[in-house]
Amino acid sequence: MPAKSTPFRVAIIGTGGIAHAHADALAELGDRVELVAVADVDLDRARAFAAEYGGRADVHADAAGVFAAHPGLDLVHVCTPPKTHAPIAVQAMRAGVASLVEKPTVLSLAEMDELVRVNAETGVPVLTVFQHRFGPAVRRLRRLAASGVLGRPLVATCETLWYRPDEYFDVPWRGRWEVEGGGPTMGHGIHQFDLLLAVLGPWSRVSAFAARQSRPTDTEDVSIALAQFENGAVATVVNSVVSPRETSRLRFDYEFATVEVEHLYGYDDDDWTFTPAPGHEDLAALWDESEGAGVTSGHRLQVEAILDALESGEAPEVSVGEARRTIEFAAATYASAFRGIPVAAGEISAGDPFSRSMDGGAVPWARVKEVVA
Questions:
Q1: How far apart are CA 210 and CA 169, in angstroms?
Q2: Can you name the residues that pair with 100 across neighbouring β-strands?
């Protein structure tokens, strides 16, 4: 199929901090894309944002204004606070515009299932920003794992050990269940454990613990989960915003090799280590780093992959179905932690409180607060 003869017409809704990563990614794609509209409830901030990124984009107060003024949009980037993600994604689907939604896609499984329903009805893609899936090293790892040369996956470690000071939570929507959906499980570690799931495949059971150690939040600031996978692998998942030495770490131990990465907010090939098991040293030659030299995982790689898929008529990633598996893992982590029991995949049904909200009405420190009050 020939390349698209005109630029992809895109818009950005929400012009806060993360929107700049999206705009930078679009700028790196050059003439392939055109930023035609931005929207923000703060019009002055929207105007300043539009001016910073070329000054050609129209400015609107909300998503409805963008869709009304630009019926031919190819893609909209949703960079608003989490509470607004699902409603805007639904608007985009109804308008026939593919959307790329910042994490977390939704605040609950119920919202996710609504997106799945509207997606099935309209056929319009809703995509989630899980940019670490698109780095060359991960694509290489998934390819090798699928080929079987690494043997069975046995054990994995997934750690998001970050630090956010108390003042980070001064922003009104941070640290609150009803507007952010959760703490580091939903807002920080979700990038790493989504990558864990992308590599290891469907999970089957989670047993977890969550705590509010020190941050002035309603949500947890630490969670720890033990996960089992359908392929027999087991993994630990740690999410924290109270860890002064920040790191993001993933380690996969297969029968014939260990593959691991340690980075912070984006990796390149230098951050990965490949260690063959004794007797399998020949596998090292398959870990060819030349294809990813100098390439850092980030928004540009995912946006580029989305445009490639739209251009070729293929289904872009990360689809609403794939994102649902990751959101369900978060919901199961909270449900297990607050109920004190393991949770199986598929166990959180539509009528379950943990389907309606990630706190499930069962946060122990919230009950203590109510008793004291």
A1: 18
A2: 77, 127
